[in-house]
Amino acid sequence: MDYDIEVVELPPRPAAVVRRAVTRPEDVGGFVATALGEVMAAVRRQGVLPAGPPFTRYGATTNGHLDVEVGLPTSTPVRDTGRVAAAELPGGRAVRTRHVGPHTGVGAAHEAVSRWMAEHGLAARDLPWESYLDGPDAARPRTDVVVPCRAGA
Hints:
Shape: globular
Structural class: alpha+beta
Distance between the termini: 25 Å
Number of helices: 2
């Protein structure tokens, strides 16, 4: 798949997240669904409005496990409650592309962004995230891949 890749300036955005739960790769889908349900319930209870699509951030892989953070951008910061915590999606310069199709293929979008950044002298300055623009039942779901970046590979 060919990806249109762009450099964008993003504002920092408050978010509600279930922070970096460590899970096995085969358990990610179930964890994302459960954690997103917790986040959405906490946001509703606090009367805070969603301010963008749900997202997942992936951190380091260690011993076959992924560090995963599931969240939702919010109109105002939330109060920590249970496993849900206040967070912020970083603002500033970022590289973004859109994957259209099953989530199992979104890794190709991450690879395309990594190659493009290397070719253009850019390096990641924070964890990347995926924003899910469509629900899980969409025939051709859209997923934005965003990587905060800085000059210097």
